[in-house]
Each structure stands twice: as structure tokens, then as C-alpha cells.
């Protein structure tokens, strides 16, 4: 890297990126980043004291300004002063996706209601504020969750969530030795409308050092163009949906373009877990450090893998709990992740059910950060299956069975269907070397791991239909539907 490039990185990281974000009402990005770098090493008691203080303020604010919470707290007979310890937050019932869909307006601070029509009429993409939003009367931005597994959730924010996400991403890159201003290629949810030379994308490249590339529904010419753009920009960080990064890696391995002049130093995947076979794929193609972000559009980034492999929670901005349901069969399993946004936002999420399974635990991580971690992160509740004798099967079990090791050589595609009667139906697109002995081998493996009370039947097909969203559904769970 030349001296001038270094100066350019410093200017982008410390001036143009934070300043332009400020004008978009994503305030304090750099300040928050510097705070986060300190607080991640605070003693756990100090972090929890901070969370408790923020939670009490939040209850006071939401109870006064958001009609949904006014009613909810009243129903629960809860006053802000009743929150004395972090255990007391359990007095508030968890918030469901359905409630957010049905009561979007009531969840919003009433003072922002006059801004709703302006946010709804915006022709910008979800989460994109109007230019110079900081100086406008109506700062509200409409956003939607991705809805890859269900109906999307609409919500409003004022830039605070995005600003926090930026600061958190700066910290994450810092964990891997990269400073603000580092060049990054971002593979995002744009495809057909992708214009590599549009004004916005050029501004992001110059002022933020972000090369925006399409990350969904790509064909070989799209990938070829992306590779050219990447080689020209030489980003050190590759950022994108897990599916986009693995898609790019598969293309590079197959088409074998000349990559001698470029290699990333860090790959950041998000929006879906990074399974072992995907990690191995990215390593073999990019030969670089990897991390994964767990988060959602509604509450922002929740947790991040550190270089030592722990999934550290963003404890400064969120309160993350793991709640077991009352189902006796689930008693000794990790519960569902519940998240509260602690900082002031016009539409607070208080005890929001994420629909993911995991366990909040002390870190004790070799990296030295005191932030709590999520252990046994098992994926979406809808994809977790309980056998008739109460064993819990996570998606990872199938990934290991079919995507790693020798079965990955015999199977082209697969899909697991959990039936209502708690039996399992396997759809398999076999490769030519799949033999009756292969099936017997898989059966032995399943009997050992799923117990023998779970009936399993095999169906051999030539093709597996995609979900209406275009996503490949590896797991279909009919067992938990009413
Ligand atoms: Zn760590």
C-alpha cells in the first residue's frame, strides 16, 4: 500500500464516511465505534449495570410515547421503577413478529406519526433515508425485514439502527486488524437494477470505500463483471450475504478467472449462519480470515464471531436473552433468542422474539473481550425438530451429514421434510455413485443419531423445487404447524 493510499483510507474512515452518514441522520458512528472498543473489555458487572440503566430509561420512554407499550405495561401492572434487576425484564411479555405486523403504528413514538406518510411515500429502497435527512423535518425511514422464511415485517427507524450497525462493523473489522476506511466489497440484495456506474454507487466507492455489487440471482456474466470490479478496486474486506459469498466462491472455483492480483484478507458473511462446508469453501477459494454476523434488520447486528471463534453479543446496544418455552420436551435444550434494543429509537423493540435457538453464556474467551456469547446457536426455531423421544435435531446435523465427508460425494441435492407425525421424509437427488449401500449407510448414521423411534423414508427425485422466494429450502418443518 502506498503512502497516498494510506492517507486516502484515513480520510475516508475518519472524515467522509462518518460525516456523510451524519448528514443522513446516522449520528455518532465514529464516536460509538471508539466507545465500543473500550466497553468490550469492561467487567461484566459494569456492562450489566449499563444495560439495566438503559432498560429502565427505555421502559419509561416507551410507556409514555408508544401506545402499544403503554397498554402492554399497564396490562402487566408494570411501572418503570419495578425494573430493579435485569431479571425483572421478564415481567414484560415477549413481542412477536405478528404483533409488530399488526401494531406497527402503535409501536411507534406518537410524535413521529405525522412523518409516516412521508416515509411511506419514499421511492428509495427500504432503509434508505432522504438526502440530508439530518436537516429535514421528517426523518423517519421505512424499512422491511428480508422475509426470506415468512412474510416481511415493516418497521420504522430514524437512522439510529443503521448508524449503530456501521459502528459495530467498524469494531468487528478492528477485531481482525482493519481500521476505518479499509476498502470493502459489499455483495448486497440488488440484482437486475444494478448499475455499476450510478451516482450513488460511485459516491459509496469514493466516500465510503464500499464497492457495491449485486448479491442475488446472479448468472455467470454477472459474476464475471463482479470479479473484474473487485480486481480493479482491490478490497481487503469481502462482505455479503452468506449465500452471495459462497455463490461468488463457487463461480471462481468453476470458471477459474485469473485472481493472482487480488485476495481478500477478511470475509464477513451475514443474514444466515456460515456452516462448516461453507466455511471450508470460502477458505479454499479466498484463503482469508472469516467471520459471521448474526442480526436482523429490525434490531440490527446482534452478535459477531471474534478471531477466537466465540459469537460475542453486542451487549452495549442490546439486551439479549435466551428463553426456554414451557414444552417439557425442550426443558434441557437452549431456548429462543429474545432481543431488546436499548438505545433510543422511535420504534423500540422490547423483548422481540427472534425465532432463533441459542444460549446466552459467559464469554471467558481467549480474545480477552468480556462480552457475553451465544452458545449452541442452532438456527431458526422453525428448522429445529424434536424426535418422538425428545431429542433435538438442528439444521447443522443435516449439513454435517450431507455436505461434509463422504456423503457429499454421493448426493447432488437434498431436502429434509419433518412430517406432522414426527417422521422424517428425505428427498435426494443422487449422483451416479449413489448405491443401495449408500442408503444403508445413511440409515445406520440416522439410527445412531436420531434414535430408532423416528421413522425415516427416502424419496429419490431428479430435481428439488425451490421455495416461492427463490430460496432452496433444505428443511421443511411440518411437525410444528398447528
Ligand atoms: Zn472472543
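^ C-alpha cells above, recovered residues below v
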Amino acid at each position: 500500500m502506498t503512502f497516498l493510499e494510506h492517507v486516502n483510507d484515513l480520510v475516508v474512515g475518519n472524515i467522509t464516511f462518518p460525516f456523510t452518514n451524519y448528514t443522513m441522520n446516522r449520528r455518532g458512528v465514529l464516536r460509538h465505534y471508539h466507545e465500543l472498543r473500550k466497553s468490550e473489555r469492561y467487567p461484566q458487572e459494569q456492562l450489566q449495570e449499563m444495560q439495566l440503566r438503559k432498560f429502565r430509561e427505555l421502559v419509561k420512554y416507551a410507556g409514555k410515547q408508544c401506545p402499544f407499550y403503554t397498554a402492554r405495561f399497564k396490562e402487566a401492572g408494570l411501572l418503570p421503577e419495578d425494573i430493579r434487576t435485569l431479571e425483572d425484564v421478564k415481567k414484560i411479555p415477549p413481542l412477536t413478529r405478528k404483533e409488530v405486523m399488526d401494531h406497527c403504528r402503535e409501536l411507534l413514538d406518537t410524535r413521529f406519526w405525522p412523518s409516516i406518510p412521508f416515509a411511506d411515500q419514499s421511492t428509495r429502497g427500504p432503509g434508505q433515508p432522504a438526502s440530508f435527512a439530518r436537516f429535514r423535518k421528517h426523518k423517519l425511514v421505512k424499512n422491511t425485514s428480508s422475509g426470506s422464511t415468512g412474510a416481511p415485517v415493516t418497521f420504522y427507524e430514524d437512522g439510529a439502527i443503521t448508524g449503530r450497525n456501521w459502528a459495530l462493523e467498524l469494531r468487528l473489522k478492528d477485531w481482525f486488524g482493519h481500521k476505518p476506511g479499509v476498502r470493502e466489497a459489499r455483495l448486497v440484495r440488488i440484482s437486475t437494477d444494478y448499475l455499476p456506474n450510478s451516482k450513488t454507487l460511485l459516491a459509496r466507492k469514493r466516500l465510503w470505500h464500499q464497492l457495491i455489487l449485486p448479491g442475488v440471482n446472479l448468472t455467470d456474466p454477472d459474476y464475471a463483471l463482479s470479479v473484474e470490479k473487485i480486481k480493479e478496486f482491490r478490497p481487503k474486506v469481502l462482505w455479503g450475504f452468506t449465500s452471495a459469498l459462497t455463490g461468488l466462491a463457487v463461480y471462481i472455483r468453476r470458471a477459474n478467472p485469473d485472481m493472482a492480483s487480488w485476495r481478500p484478507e477478511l470475509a464477513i458473511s451475514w443474514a444466515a449462519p456460515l456452516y462448516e462446508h461453507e466455511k471450508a469453501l470460502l477458505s479454499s477459494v479466498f484463503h482469508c480470515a472469516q467471520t459471521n454476523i448474526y442480526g436482523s434488520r429490525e434490531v440490527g447486528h446482534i452478535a459477531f464471531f471474534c478471531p477466537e471463534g466465540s459469537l460475542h453479543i453486542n451487549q452495549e446496544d442490546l439486551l439479549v436473552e435466551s428463553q426456554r418455552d414451557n414444552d417439557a420436551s425442550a426443558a434441557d435444550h437452549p431456548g429462543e433468542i429474545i432481543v431488546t434494543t436499548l438505545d433510543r429509537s422511535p420504534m423500540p423493540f422490547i423483548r422481540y422474539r427472534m425465532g432463533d435457538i441459542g444460549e446466552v453464556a459467559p464469554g471467558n474467551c481467549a480474545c480477552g473481550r468480556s462480552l457475553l456469547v451465544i452458545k449452541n446457536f442452532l438456527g431458526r426455531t422453525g428448522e429445529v425438530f424434536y424426535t418422538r423421544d425428545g431429542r433435538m435435531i438442528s439444521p447443522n446435523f443435516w449439513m454435517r451429514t450431507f455436505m461434509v465427508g463422504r456423503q457429499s460425494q454421493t448426493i447432488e441435492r437434498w431436502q429434509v421434510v419433518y412430517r406432522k407425525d414426527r417422521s422424517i421424509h428425505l428427498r435426494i437427488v443422487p449422483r451416479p455413485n449413489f448405491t443401495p449401500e449408500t442408503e444403508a449407510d445413511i440409515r445406520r448414521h440416522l439410527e445412531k443419531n436420531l434414535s430408532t423411534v423416528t421413522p425415516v423414508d427416502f424419496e429419490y427425485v431428479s430435481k428439488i423445487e425451490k421455495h416461492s422466494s427463490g430460496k432452496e429450502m433444505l428443511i421443511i418443518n411440518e411437525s410444528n404447524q398447528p
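Residues 44-65 form the longest helix (22 residues).
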